């Protein structure tokens, strides 16, 4: 068993709210250990040094899980850091310990302190092993980081002199929830220098980094002793050019520094910020290149690239990538800035396909699917965000369907059956939940009693759709019960596919699926084959999920809805599939029209307003320079970036043969458009690099397809089929 289990949880005997605690232990070793391994975790986030040198190149450890259910510990090889006389010192901040929802201060008071668990395991040449474990011999002091909070930031007082070290308290906290590190480590990824210094009309000193990021800043603080420097982090300037922080809601996103008159290299260790701009108060003679923004995210390998002849679409792709960078910190979050930053299941569901093309997210999502399994209710329902301490029974369609959609997509992209096996119960329990809910309905509640429709449950609806007269409304016009039953069918179909891959008998679910479809058609399709709920999202779901075999009437209904509005009206539920459906029904040019449109509402409108990440709302910042409601208006929300998977799969045509996974059988079927002279994309798949490019010259188009070894590939172009070879294939049509 790992020696971390021999250690005891320790906490400070007393802790002022939100201070960072420094735990310490000094010890001597015999000459000379051949190996030293540190196993460590904390309730909070830790920053560990041995003899003044940092133990980890990652940050915000031990990451984020529901610590009551599972908590990751990390193991580091620290052999090189060990000397004869040693001191281990571990700062522990609040981190995600109480991270939940809006203002957390009351939680913090009622939950108490941070805690640490660690074992330094030292092995000598003769095989002797000595374990230095956290126990009552450790001491602690308060740190100069006088305040830390994930939403509000940090306050560092360089004048703070801790009182003498005090003995820690050993607490009987459980070790049964410990798990070795599962996810990717969160690391510092890149550094962006300040681009421009702005003095706002209101007189604030602002630095623009030119890119919205998630992370923190670094710079050298030089100020007089006792001076306070306050830095606010924010996303947008108002139309007048002033600092805009209202959309952060209660999150302060500040860094406050109290100088001791000496020069210090500043870099927060216990928090992160979502920002493009900083406003600096209390520092003279500021120059933008003295400040760097450090981009922090889970250490996922970049796998996907896209480029085309239209700069606007290239910027859109850039924004999709940055939406992912900004929201993949151990957990896929909705946004990195306001008092939310939660693992919203719907957002992850919508974005997981393109996420898996852009970066290798197998390990990242494998860990989070572990969180989902841990948080699945005994009923099979899934909370709306994970991890959560909020008493949320979830169960909203398109959000809770992450339970089937995510494992299935990870299997498709990475071809790893283990992922499916591990999450089969997650998928099945969720489908079973919907089925038992459908069976339980009571006629006196005025809800249909069809046992094959997932109706009457609470749902988020087509979140942020634009098909209600009130453009600030959040739930859209598509009937929630329709969405519920459409996803009931879809999730059941994915469970069937997973069962078939794993060789599990699924006759019951095949039957269930047939019945859901029948009931769906009976209730929602009219005598002309159209969907009664006349919205783009309703058509899109029926078509994309294959709920009605006669596609023609639905296709013409969708086409006229899109043409009638002249733009999309879909929200979180319909948007990811809209362009796929349009190109599948032969309306590729209409799909392109929506893709390149740059007036509100569209994917490119935010780009005309200088966006460097995806926005939460189609109308986050309006043409007249006003903002959408600050109640919910993030400028770094990846969900609508799901359009990126259409760019890989349809625009550049990188697809997989139906029934295969892990890119063993590739189908190149690009859908070109006269609006572009070229487009290209590549994905570093588990079977090698797959790339596709098309370039028009005159009436001809030249296609270049790259096929990795040991895979099969065909190209489908203008109704013709080409069998491709390993390596580079060129076709002119
Ligand atoms: C989040 C969303 C989430 C939604 C639930 C919002 O506050 O930011 O992205 O999916 O709530 O509908």
Considering the chains and any ligands shown, give keywords for the structure.
733 residues; alpha+beta; Jelly Rolls; Maltose phosphorylase, domain 3; ten-stranded mixed β-sheet; 14 helices; 25% helix; binds beta-D-glucopyranose
Q: How far is the first residue's CA from the last residue's CA?
A: 63 Å
Tell me the major beta sheet. 10 strands, mixed
If you consult CATH, what is the topology of the domain at 3-181?
Jelly Rolls
Low-pLDDT segments: 102-111
Q: Mean pLDDT, as a whole number?
A: 95
Which superfamily, in CATH terms, is the homologous superfamily of the domain at 3-181? Answer: Galactose-binding domain-like
Helices and strands: which structural class?
A: alpha+beta
By CATH reckoning, the class of the domain at 3-181 would read Mainly Beta
Q: Which CATH architecture of the domain at 3-181 is right? A: Sandwich
Q: What do you see in this structure?
A:
The chain is an alpha+beta fold and 733 residues long. Among the domains are: 3-181, Jelly Rolls (Sandwich); 187-298, Jelly Rolls (Sandwich), CATH 2.60.120; 665-732, Maltose phosphorylase, domain 3, CATH 2.60.420. The protein is 25% helix and 28% strand. It is built from 14 helices and 36 strands. Strands 11, 12, 16, 17, 18, 19, 22, 23, 24 and 25 form a 10-stranded mixed sheet that branches. Strands 5-4-7-2-10-13 form a 6-stranded antiparallel sheet, with no helix packed on it. A hairpin with a 2-residue loop joins β4 (45-50) and β5 (53-54). α3 (345-358) packs parallel to α5 (402-414) and α4 (362-375) packs antiparallel against α5 (402-414). The longest helix is centred in the middle third of the chain and has 24 residues, at 417-440. The chain is globular, with a radius of gyration of 27 Å. The relative contact order is 0.09. Mean pLDDT is 95; it is low at 102-111.
């Amino acid at each position: 068993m790992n020696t971390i289990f021999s250690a005891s949880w320790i906490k400070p005997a007393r802790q002022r709210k939100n201070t960072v605690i420094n735990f310490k232990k000094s010890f001597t070793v015999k000459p000379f250990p051949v190996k030293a391994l540190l196993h460590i975790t904390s309730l909070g986030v830790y920053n560990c040094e041995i003899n003044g040198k940092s133990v980890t190149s990652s940050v915000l450890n031990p990451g984020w899980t529901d610590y009551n259910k599972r908590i990751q510990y990390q193991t580091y090889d620290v052999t090189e850091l060990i000397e004869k006389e040693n001191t281990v010192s571990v700062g522990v901040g609040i981190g995600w310990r109480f991270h939940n929802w809006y203002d957390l201060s009351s939680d913090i008071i009622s939950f108490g302190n941070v805690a640490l668990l660690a074992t330094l395991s030292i092995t000598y040449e003769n095989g002797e092993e000595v374990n230095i474990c956290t126990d009552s011999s450790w001491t602690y002091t308060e740190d100069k980081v006088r305040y830390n909070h994930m939403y509000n930031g940090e306050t560092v007082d360089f004048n703070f002199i801790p009182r003498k070290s005090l003995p820690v308290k050993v607490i009987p906290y459980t070790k049964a929830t410990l798990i070795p590190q599962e996810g990717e480590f969160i690391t510092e990824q890149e550094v962006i220098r300040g681009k421009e210094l702005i003095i706002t009309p209101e007189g604030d000193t602002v630095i623009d980094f030119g890119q919205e990021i998630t992370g923190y800043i670094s710079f050298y603080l030089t100020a007089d002793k006792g001076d306070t420097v306050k830095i606010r982090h924010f996303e947008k300037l108002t139309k007048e050019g002033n600092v805009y922080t209202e959309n952060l809601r209660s999150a302060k996103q500040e860094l406050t520094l109290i100088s001791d008159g000496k020069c210090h290299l500043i870099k927060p260790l216990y928090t992160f910020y979502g920002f493009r701009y900083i406003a600096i108060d209390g520092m003279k003679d500021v120059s933008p290149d003295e400040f760097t923004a450090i981009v922090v995210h889970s250490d996922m390998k970049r796998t996907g690239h896209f480029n085309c002849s239209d700069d606007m679409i290239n910027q859109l792709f850039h924004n999709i990538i940055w939406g992912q960078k900004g929201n993949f910190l151990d957990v896929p979050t909705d946004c990195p800035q306001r008092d939310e930053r939660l693992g919203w299941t719907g957002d992850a569901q919508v974005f997981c396909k393109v996420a898996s093309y852009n970066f290798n997210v197998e390990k990242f999502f494998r860990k989070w699917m572990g969180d989902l399994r841990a948080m699945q209710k005994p009923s099979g329902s899934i909370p709306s965000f994970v991890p959560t301490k909020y008493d949320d029974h979830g169960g909203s369609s398109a959000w809770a369907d992450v339970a089937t959609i995510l494992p299935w997509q990870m299997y498709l992209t990475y071809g790893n059956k283990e992922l499916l096996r591990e999450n089969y119960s997650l998928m099945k329990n969720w489908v079973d939940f919907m089925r038992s809910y459908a069976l339980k309905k009571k006629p006196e509640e005025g809800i249909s009693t069809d046992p094959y429709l997932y109706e009457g449950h609470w749902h988020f609806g087509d979140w942020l759709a634009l098909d209600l007269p009130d453009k600030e409304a959040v739930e859209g016009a598509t009937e929630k019960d329709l969405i519920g039953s459409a996803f009931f069918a879809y999730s059941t179909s994915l469970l069937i596919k997973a069962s078939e891959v794993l060789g599990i008998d699924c006759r019951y679910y095949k039957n269930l699926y047939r019945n859901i479809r029948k009931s769906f058609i009976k209730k929602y399709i009219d005598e002309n084959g159209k969907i009664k709920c006349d919205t783009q999202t309703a058509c899109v779901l029926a078509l994309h999920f294959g709920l009605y075999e006669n596609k023609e009437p639905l296709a013409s209904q969708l086409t006229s809805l899109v043409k009638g509005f002249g733009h999309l009206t879909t929200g979180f539920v319909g948007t990811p599939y809209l362009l796929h459906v349009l190109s599948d029904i032969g309306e590729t040019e209409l799909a392109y029209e929506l893709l390149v449109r740059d007036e509100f509402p569209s994917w490119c409108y935010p780009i005309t307003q200088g966006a460097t990440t995806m926005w939460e709302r189609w109308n986050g910042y309006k043409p007249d320079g006003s903002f959408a409601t600050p109640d919910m208006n993030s400028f770094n929300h990846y969900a609508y970036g799901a359009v990126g998977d259409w760019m890989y799969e349809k625009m550049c045509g990188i697809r997989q043969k139906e029934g295969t996974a892990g890119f063993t059988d590739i189908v190149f079927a690009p859908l070109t458009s006269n609006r572009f002279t070229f487009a290209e994309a590549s994905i570093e798949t588990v079977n090698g690099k797959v790339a596709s490019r098309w370039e028009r010259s005159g009436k001809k188009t030249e296609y270049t397809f790259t096929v990795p070894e040991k895979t099969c590939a065909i190209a489908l172009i203008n109704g013709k089929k080409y069998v491709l070879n390993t390596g580079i294939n060129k076709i002119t049509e």
